[in-house]
Amino acid sequence: MTTILSAPDCATMTEVRAGVDALDRELMALLARRFAYMDAAARIKPERGHVRDEGRKAEVITNARAEAERLGLPGTAIADLWERLVEASIAYELAAFDRRR
User: Which pLDDT does position 21 carry in this prediction?
Assistant: First the structure.
């Protein structure tokens, strides 16, 4: 088993890549949790037309950008990622809604 080092402790690209791969696995687990909430939303919302909420979408992206900037990350790049994440979540929720009906 490979020990995962913190980024400042990495001395080789092998160590960096091991850290990135470990984080990617953690991100997938978090995304699975996020998409489970999309399943819940599809179960709770009474109509398919309630799935897309542009106001909420804007709020989520604004929050992501602000948190990214607070952490010293590139806000625009994170906002772009969240745009894609939210759109993927909406598509997933629509499909989940359709499967339930």
Answer: 98
